[in-house]
Design goal:
heterotrimer; A alpha+beta (398); B alpha/beta (209); C mainly alpha (566); A: 398 residues; D-Maltodextrin-Binding Protein, domain 2; 2 domains; 5-stranded mixed sheet; 10 strands; 40% helix; C: 566 residues; mainly alpha; MetI-like fold; 26 helices; 77% helix; globular
């Protein structure tokens, strides 16, 4: 019923259509009071759902903003809604106020000029963000230009059960060899699942000769550049879980498979996921994390606000809160979410900094040094074509 | 008042035109006319025509009137024709008192007293709050009779009302019904296959074949 | 007289209520499928969506899986149901199974499928019970059981869930065709139970069962909820593919989705036609069997009986055991293969998800109650109008009622979504409510018309003699006396609403979360503890109204014996 109320509010307030200006933060706070923010965010992981619920409580208490988590099975749902609303001429009072977004979805909306902003760099908490050291201003090689605000740093890691796998394979070749020696113990989420496609990109990085080429648009040499990846898949797929004839449908599903003893290895974009899952009894206590010798891809999770959002001020207040030391600390707490922070430790108050320093990362989380520097994401066009090709070669293989 | 219930060439047919039965009758106030015939002949259909609840499979022609009022086009609830079935049909979700008082108008003053009085008239003092399912067959028959009478009908139709009762009760019940009807000067039309019923009624007997 | 005329518009309104969303949905499907409407404006006639559809990798495999799983699961459920009724009707075993029927029937498809998935998986309960002592498995075997490319897990799941529905429909039809008398005659002639039943009862029964069977067939060929959980993934069933296109970021795929929806519709129509041919062939075989005069009283009869009870018990046990496993998961601490039970129990999962599960349960029940009450109003209005006009709705009306149950949801709901998007209409509560009513109302009508017609109209005659008009009869007699069936039917309607997945997802635009959408969203994540909590909440939401429907009349009529046993 709330959205009916919200719709009524839009209709009534139709006359006063001035866009909220993030530079005038007091005005934003005032306008945000009483707004309902529909945050469209992937809802397949219980830990993130719990975190978002906590954010909702906090912004309600502090700013009087009601946060509703619209749980998506695929971020594309929210994107298509915005595009459709634009097509239908719904240029205000749209259904989506904020999207957990990155990569191709962000680029699609930015290119179509369907995002509100720039706002990110005017948020009061932006000054705490580590804009130099973290991948927060570029998303899949495309500059964010302030149209999306980061809230967590992510990097590809692999989770394994140290009890059944004492020496995890740390390169594409090693994975292929290990899978050949231990058939049925390895899988990845089925593309177009985000994590599954990320895994393919990670293997591409491992296998191509010139990684710099990936920073440019995929062109005529696409087949040539990606050939080693397909060769690797051709070799490895038959040795995978269920002979590569079925795949887990999402990232978290891999954790259950490890816990059941079905597989030994899982790919993740959240360095703290293993620790959080141990705390939630989803993984055995022997679960650990590793990265590949040649490094792994890193990116950030962002939130963006559609151009026709109904509660832009409220959405900015939530985006800003996500960047607060309090929220970032909670997100990084391994038992809660274990997401990497995007904040610059040097910009924090002594007290906040101490809180981050004292955070026990947990047995299964790698230290920043062990994680190493994140590799940049390839250009989005690679992902699109690889996703399509994989589907034709393996996605309908039965 | 003198006119009673009149059926003038009441002719009931199946919807397809096949005739079912034809009957003419004049039931004066305070008297009983009995309609007899083997089962399947459509005796109860006559009563359905009079109450205005003829099933859609049938239609009729002819005239029906009660105390000079033409019944043909009146909706059932305005015909003021009470009916008693062999199953008594007490409303199972209501108490005995609510059953008896069902036909009283919504705002009847002294409803409670009237119901209590009616119950004591049939020897069921203090039964107002009882569950009808706990009554004996004879008690149910009496409650059904009283329920009908309290609604002050202008005619009474009886559809084999005594056939479920054992011999002893049957006699008593017949006596009670005909006595009450006479006391209220009601024309009574009795449908039965039991000659004893018709004889006890004492009036004209119409044989349907 | 005024109320008469108001009442007489109810059937027309009901038809509008049922057909409106369906018609709109079909329009919204047909236009984009032929390029005549594009989300984003414009459009002219083109076959481009069809070319794109047929160029989709895996399309034919997906369509084939839909057809195969639909036909085989319906056949399995029907044979199981018929063997059970034929071989066991009137026995004590049968009455025991009959009592399990309502609870089994009201378990939402998603909950049953999720339970079954854990039961059957290589690391599931069945494997754990036998490992390692029997199988020698220290780790789960690498077997593709759930989500197998052949769709057998999906067939098993659909069979288990549809058998109770067919049973219920058969039980409702049997008294109408005097099955008991027919059986006495044929048994006295020396025929075996099953064979005799097939020869003399089945033909009459099947003509009553035909529409429900078609509804099962259509559902099995086009469902999304069970397919998502138990079906193959590379490629999935056609319905799952359609849903994927309909929710993709790329709006150009809506055209493919619409064309796919029409293909799905054609497949269902073709499937029903194929089934009809099968019926004719079976009838011809049966005629020859009658003429042969063979009695089949011995071992063949026993085989049929045993098969019937085995299928039925397997169906019942797998659904109930699946639910039990969900309950265990929701209280589980660490739990690894091959342990049959968790190493520890705890309330952690309930602490984590209990509160939001409760919130969503309230939303789900509120929506269900609203849909059921609105539908009840129309159902009663129709039945009463029918009664007062002294006519019953006949065959056309029955077909109309079955239309929403036979027409695949995936064939017209995407169109409804496209239309809502195109109009820029608010998606959310009201469209969801309207689509729920489309599916809730037919079930409620079918379930209530029996008891409504069975009511002894002589009560009305008596009451008319007491000066009470039709309104008084309805409100003071008929409805209060029918309280128990009305509440039960309302519970049926609520259970139907609680179980709806596609209408909630597509008409709600993701804004309305119910227990079913939440449980299925979590199913991809595979957090079994969370799924356990949500599945239990989902099942409870479907069961609670039934419990209320049992208890309330007992309280209201605790002093009225005839109302408790009648």
């Amino acid at each position: 019923m709330k959205h009916i109320l919200a719709a009524a509010m839009v209709t009534l307030g139709g006359a006063a259509f001035a866009e909220p200006n993030p530079a005038d933060w007091d005005a934003v706070l005032k306008e945000a009071q009483g707004e309902i923010v529909y945050w469209h965010a992937w809802g397949g992981a219980t830990t993130t759902n719990d975190f978002i619920a906590w954010v909702g409580e906090r912004v309600m208490n502090d700013y009087g903003v009601a946060l509703e988590h619209v749980k998506l099975t695929d971020t594309a749902d929210a994107v298509s809604r915005v595009v459709a609303e634009n097509a239908a001429g719904t240029d205000a009072g749209g259904a989506v106020d904020m999207i957990w977004i990155n990569g191709e979805n962000f680029i699609a909306l930015k290119d179509a000029d369907l995002l509100f902003g720039p706002f990110a760099e005017q948020l009061p908490n932006w000054e705490l963000v580590d804009a130099e050291g973290k991948p927060v201003t570029v998303d899949f090689t495309v500059p964010t230009d302030g149209y999306e605000s980061p809230w967590a740093a992510a990097q590809v890691v692999f989770i394994y059960d140290s009890e059944t796998l004492s020496e995890p394979p740390t390169s594409a070749e090693a994975i292929a060899e290990w899978a050949a020696a231990n058939p049925g113990r390895f899988t990845f989420p089925q593309p177009p699942d985000f994590l599954g496609t990320t895994f393919l990109k990670q293997m591409l990085f491992e296998l191509v000769e010139d990684t710099d080429r990936l920073q440019e648009d995929a062109g005529d040499d696409y087949a040539e550049v990606t050939a080693p990846l397909w060769a690797w898949l051709e070799e490895t797929t038959p040795n995978m879980w269920r002979g590569g004839r079925a795949y887990p449908q999402s990232g978290p599903r891999q954790l259950q498979l490890i816990n059941d003893g079905e597989i030994d290895l899982a790919v993740s974009l959240s360095p703290g996921e293993a620790t959080a899952a141990i705390a939630n009894q989803q993984l055995p206590e022997s679960a650990r994390t590793f990265v590949l010798d040649a490094g792994t891809i890193g990116n950030a999770s962002f939130v963006a606000i559609p151009y026709n959002a109904n509660a832009k001020a409220g959405a900015m207040v939530v985006a800003n809160f996500l960047l607060s030391p309090e929220a970032q600390l909670r997100a990084q707490t391994p038992e809660i979410l274990g997401y990497g922070t995007v904040l610059n430790m040097d910009a924090l108050s002594a007290e906040d900094r101490a809180a981050f320093d004292n955070l026990e990362l947990g047995v299964a989380t790698l230290s920043p040094a062990e994680l190493g520097t994140a590799l940049p994401e390839p250009h989005a066009s690679w992902m699109t074509r690889i996703e399509q090709d994989w589907r034709e070669r393996y996605g309908v293989a039965n | 008042m003198g006119e009673g219930l009149k059926l003038d060439k009441l002719d009931i047919q199946h919807r397809n035109g096949r005739p079912l039965l034809a009957i003419s009758a004049q039931v004066p106030a305070g008297e009983t006319v009995s309609v007899m015939g083997p089962s399947g002949v459509g005796k109860s259909t006559v009563l359905a025509a009079i109450t205005g609840t003829l099933p859609p499979a049938f239609r009729y022609s002819g005239e029906m009137s009660l105390n000079g009022r033409r019944l043909n086009d009146l909706p059932p609830q305005e015909r003021r024709v009470g009916i008693l079935f062999q199953d008594h049909l007490l409303f199972p979700h209501l108490s005995v008192g609510q059953n008896v008082g069902f036909g009283l108008l919504r705002r009847t003053p002294d409803r409670r007293e009237k119901v209590a009085e009616a119950l004591s008239e049939i020897g069921l003092e203090g039964f107002a709050d009882r569950d009808p399912a706990t009554l004996s067959g004879g008690q149910r028959a009496r409650v059904a009779l009283m329920r009908t009478l309290l609604a002050e009908p202008e005619a009474l139709l009886l559809d084999e009302p005594f056939s479920r009762l054992d011999a002893e009760l049957r006699g008593k019940m017949r006596e009670l019904v005909f006595e009450r009807a006479r006391a209220r000067q009601l024309p009574v039309l009795l449908v039965t296959h039991d000659l004893a019923d018709a004889e006890a009624a004492g009036g004209e007997i119409i044989q349907l074949t | 007289m005024r109320t008469e005329s108001r009442l007489s518009v109810v059937p027309a309104l009901t038809i509008l209520l049922l057909l409106g969303p369906i018609a709109a949905g079909l329009v919204g499907t047909v236009l984009p499928a032929f390029g005549l409407m594009k989300v984003g404006g414009g459009g002219s006639f083109s076959l481009e969506p069809w070319h794109m559809l047929f160029a989709e990798p895996g399309l034919f495999q997906a369509a084939w899986i839909s057809v195969k799983t639909g036909l085989l699961s319906t056949l399995g459920a029907l044979v199981g149901c018929l063997l059970l009724v034929a071989g066991w009707q009137g026995t004590r075993t049968f009455s025991a199974l009959e009592r399990l029927l309502s609870p089994l029937l009201s378990v939402p498809h998603a909950a049953a499928a999720l339970g079954l998935a854990f039961l059957l998986a290589p690391s599931g309960w069945a494997a754990r019970l036998n490992s390692p002592w029997l199988t020698g498995w220290e780790r789960p075997p690498d077997l593709l059981i759930v989500g197998d490319p052949g769709g057998w897990a999906l067939i098993a799941g659909l069979m288990a869930k549809e058998l109770p529905f067919l049973m219920l429909m058969a039980l409702a039809a049997l008294p109408q065709i005097n099955s008991r008398e027919r059986m006495q005659v044929v048994l006295s002639l020396g025929y075996g139970r099953v064979r005799g039943w097939v020869l003399v009862v089945l033909p009459a029964l099947y003509s009553q069962l035909r529409l429900p069977v078609y509804a099962v067939l259509a559902y099995s060929m086009s469902n999304v909820d069970v397919s998502t959980v138990l079906g193959p993934t590379a490629p999935p069933t056609l319905a799952v593919l359609i849903l994927r296109w309909m929710t993709d970021a790329d709006l150009a795929l809506r055209g493919i989705g619409a064309a796919g929806a029409l293909l799905q519709l054609a497949i269902v129509v073709g499937g029903i036609a194929l089934w009809r041919l099968g019926e004719i062939a079976a009838a011809a075989l049966a005629r020859r069997a009658v003429e042969s005069g063979q009695r089949s009283a011995g071992w063949r009869d026993q085989t049929g009986r045993v098969l019937g009870i085995v299928i039925a018990v397997l169906a019942g046990v797998s659904i109930l055991a699946g639910l039990a496993s969900q309950a265990v998961w929701s209280f589980a601490g660490r739990w690894r293969f091959p342990d049959v039970l968790p190493a520890q129990f705890g309330l952690r999962s309930w602490e984590r998800h209990g509160e939001s599960a409760l919130d969503v349960t309230l939303v789900t029940l509120g929506l269900a109650a609203l849909a059921a009450i609105i539908a009840l109003f129309f159902v009663l209005g129709c039945l009463e109008a029918e009664h007062r006009r002294g006519r019953s709705m006949g065959r056309a009306g029955l077909l109309l009622l079955y239309l929403p149950l036979i027409l695949p949801q995936i064939a017209f709901l995407p169109g409804l979504q496209i239309l809502l998007l195109q109009l820029g209409a608010a998606q959310g509560f009201l469209p969801v409510l309207a689509t729920h009513i489309v599916f809730v109302l037919p079930y409620m009508f079918l379930a209530l018309s029996g008891p409504f017609h069975a009511w002894d109209t002589r009560y009305a005659t008596v009451a008319a003699g007491l000066g009470t008009g039709p309104e008084g009869v309805l409100w003071r007699l008929r409805l209060p006396m029918l309280l128990a069936p009305i509440l039960t039917v309302t519970a049926v309607g609520m259970a139907v609403s609680v179980g709806q997945y596609l209408p909630t997802l597509l008409a709600g635009g993701g804004r309305l979360t119910t227990l079913t959408t939440e449980a299925l969203a979590l199913s991809s994540g595979g957090d079994r503890r969370a799924i356990g909590v949500w599945t239990l909440a989902l099942t409870a939401a479907a069961w609670v109204p039934f419990a209320a429907a049992l208890v309330v009349p007992r309280l209201v009529y605790r002093k009225r014996q005839a109302m408790l046993h009648g």
